[in-house]
Amino acid sequence: MTRLFNNPAAFADEALEGFVAAHRRLVRRVPGGVARAAATAPGQVAVVVGGGSGHYPAFSGLVGPGLAHGAAVGNVFASPSAQQVAQVAKAAQAGGGVLLAFGNYAGDVLHFGQAAERLTAEGIPCATLAVTDDVSSAAAGESEKRRGVAGDLAVFKTAAAAAEAGLPLAEVVRLAELANARTRSFGIAFSGCTLPGADAPLFTVPDGRMAVGLGIHGEPGLAERPVPSADEAAELLVSTLLGELPEGVDSPRGQRAGVILNGLGSVKYEELFVVYRQVARLLAEAGVETVDPEVGELVTSFDMAGVSLTLFWLTDELEPLWTAPADAPAYRKGTVAPAVTTAEPLADADLAEEPAVPEASEPSRAAARTALAALEAIETTIRAHAEELGRIDAVAGDGDHGIGMRRGSEAAHVAARQALERGAGAGTLLHHAADAWADRAGGTSGALWGVILRALGTALGDTERPDAHAVSVGVDAAADGVMRLGKAETGDKTMVDALVPFADALSEAVGQGAPLTAAWDTAATAADAAAKATAELLPRLGRARPHAEKSLGTPDAGAVSLALIVRAVHGALAACPAEPTA
Ligand SMILES: Nc1ncnc2c1ncn2[C@@H]1O[C@H](COP(=O)(O)OP(=O)(O)O)[C@@H](O)[C@H]1O
Ligand SMILES: O=C(COP(=O)(O)O)[C@@H](O)CO
Q1: What is the DSSP letter of 38?
Q2: Alpha carbon of 194 to ligand 2 centroid (Å)
Q3: pLDDT tens digits for range 233-288
Q4: CA 558 – CA 77 distance, rounded (Å)
Q5: Per its UniProt record, what SMART domains does this chain match (predicted)?
Q6: How far is the CA of 385 from the centre of ligand 1 (A)?
Q7: Is this prediction's pTM over 0.90?
Q8: Is 107 in the pocket of ligand 2 (CB under 6 A)?
Q9: Of 270, 364, 514, 580, which is the most exposed, with the fewest CB atoms less than 10 Å away?
Q10: What span, in angstroms and rounded, lies between the C-alpha atoms of 510 and 190?
């Protein structure tokens, strides 16, 4: 239970403010997150990590000499936006290029990937690495689908130590990839976490039972077993990881391994040590030499009662990187030479540019007023359904869909209003709303709603009076854009399952000559039916995939929110005075 908070939607921002106030010696606030207090040495590769809040010390607590140069900090359980990642990278980089490293989650992959494209386009060499250590999240043959959990630390530490040693970006990437390939984690849990403001945990485990193979976002485990003794828990963790050795490790005997026994939020340190006592014995019996083991909280999931074990199979070149000194708020090792160069904190205004508002025609400004009304209706409907969306997302996801959609739709509405006040046409207004939504919401749906609004804006433009055909072309482009970026197809149980039927029905009705409002009405009804029908689908992508069976009977949260949104937009179109016709 998270007991101490103010406004739940402000929890992540307020926690970050307090964290920076407590750790001024090591970190400074920069737009999008935090960077080391000391400037990166000129020419050194900057390792920028990041992810959602709720996992402390991941990710901000891992910033400091010998560890990350910066961390992009997202909302609770939601990846930071591409804009945040790019801002932190710009604040941390010093001419040697940037490695963006993060856990392998859909939202993070989308946002860090987009940030890398932007940085590269601006002349900052940039690479990305998604950590995939959690053996329970996909089969060994599909390791690229695995989630990143406590193994994040092994990979971040390797990359940062390589950067600190002055190696060029390509070498830092090679070593970080090698570390990722040789890191495996596995976890168990006794109870799920409760998000700030929520009145129930994301999952529960019956008394006397434990969940096996859990994630770090309140994703429930894949199986249940009776609660073991500490020694039996250690046996399960060790035997699972010894049962899946990475390529190049034929037998554990004679190997050297970094070890992380990670508490997920409410398992006490003494309990961890009791478990570690047996982990150490079992590894010794198997002939594994442990190197600099870590026992403590390195990646958490709020107050989840759980434990994970990570083995980092070392090589001659990886071991010195694992054992190199570091000095971060939540991770200290050896002695780090005092940093000499200090950097001034950057105010948000230093990096935020006011987006341009090009000249627009009067008909386009009239359409912009309708678009603003639609965005207001979206915000209202999402606010009214936020809790329900969170509940649906919690069945097989991480329960944050309502929070993210709320932050995104509020920000889009504010940005649209400001754009209209500055004379924006429909296209520019939607572009500003798109960027604000993606930036403020983060997460998978934030990135995808950014794509949807941007595609619509591009189709409407700032000169013509948009007609039903232009709107339908924009919706088709939005569906294409979402599928291109997210790589989901219909049937995967995502928002695509509502968006595609919506786009198809709209285009068909418009093709038959229906006016926009009537065509939109028909299409919104199709989206609603399609969203409901996702209850019968098994998820094939993303966080819900490992919990496919659990999600049967519950619709996809993103499809439901999309259906709600298009229905609300219909209300705004119906209320608008001059309706565009085909
Ligand atoms: N690859 C994808 N393509 C399209 N939509 C996706 C994809 N992955 C997830 N989604 C949608 O995003 C929704 C989850 O959004 P949200 O909870 O905000 O993001 P996150 O899972 O990053 O926390 C899902 O219900 C699904 O509709
Ligand atoms: O908390 C996280 C959620 O990622 P999403 O894919 O946006 O849900 C993640 O950043 C942890 O690494």
Answers
A1: B
A2: 16
A3: 999 999 999 999 999 999 999 999 999 999 999 999 999 999 999 999 999 999 99
A4: 16
A5: Dak2
A6: 17
A7: no
A8: yes
A9: 270
A10: 54
